[in-house]
Structure formats: C-alpha cells, structure tokens
Design brief:
By secondary structure, the chain is of the alpha+beta class. The chain is 22% helix and 35% strand. Strand 1 and strand 2 form a beta hairpin. The radius of gyration is 12 Å and the shape is globular. This is UPF0235 protein DCMF_09315.
Length: 96
C-alpha cells in the first residue's frame, strides 16, 4: 500500500524509479512506494525531470507544484505535490 503523507495542502509519497524503460508508466507498488518506469536515462537530471513531468501530467498540476524532496541521485525518491488533497491522490492511485 502506498504511504501517502498528508502535509496540509501538500502530499508526499515514495517512488522507486526505473529509468530507460520502453514507456513511462506506473508499474505497480513495491512495499510502500510507487514503482515508476520512465524512458529517460539517469543522466544530467533527465530522469528527475521526467518524474516531475509524469506526475504533473498525472495530477494535472504545473511542474512547479511537483518537487523531489529526497533522493535526487537515487532511484528511491520522495515526491511532494503542492495543492493536492489526500482524496485526490488516493483517486489518482486508485486507493480506496
């Protein structure tokens, strides 16, 4: 189950990133983290930018509202989204 942390007007969650995938998509849940496949390589911040773009599109938020608050140089990241409620996040991740 995804561990969604409600910080008032912000939601944070763990992401395990698999770079250089054939397509960008959520590939399931690993422990308490979202497994995210992205097409970008982990070079010069391209993978981090792809993670931000992916979640901006998923939640229909501007990229400036998405931040990687931990794990910039790791496959294991914590992503924080401003202006998102817990119920909106649960709906997008299809959590009851």
């Amino acid at each position: 189950m995804i561990d969604l942390v409600d910080k008032g007007n912000r939601i944070a969650f763990k992401v395990k990133v698999q770079p250089r995938a054939s397509k960008s998509e959520i590939a399931g849940i690993i422990g308490d983290a979202v497994k995210l496949r992205i097409t970008s390589p982990p070079v010069d911040g391209a993978a981090n930018e792809a993670v931000i773009r992916f979640f901006a599109d998923l939640f229909r938020k501007p990229a400036k509202d998405i931040a990687i608050i931990s794990g910039l140089l790791s496959r294991n990241k914590i992503v924080e989204i401003s202006g998102l409620s817990l119920s909106e996040a649960k709906k997008a991740f299809q959590i009851e």
